Description:
The chain is an alpha+beta fold. Helix content is 51%, strand content 17%.
Amino acid sequence: MPQDVPNSTSDLLTLTEAAAFLRAPVATLRYWRHLGIGPEGFRLGRRLLYRREDLDRWVAEQRETQSTRR
């Protein structure tokens, strides 16, 4: 693989890894997904995966929303 192309699979997190990254229980991520308010994830076969960049974007959006409410 050329060095200028990032390894996109290393940026994919499982549900458990995403929960650890966000420091939230797995059940909370499942609930957020059910409500449609959590970070964007996708299914790859039977596995639910999250892109690290989507998690970072979602955290930034939450932080921005919180700062505009004050």
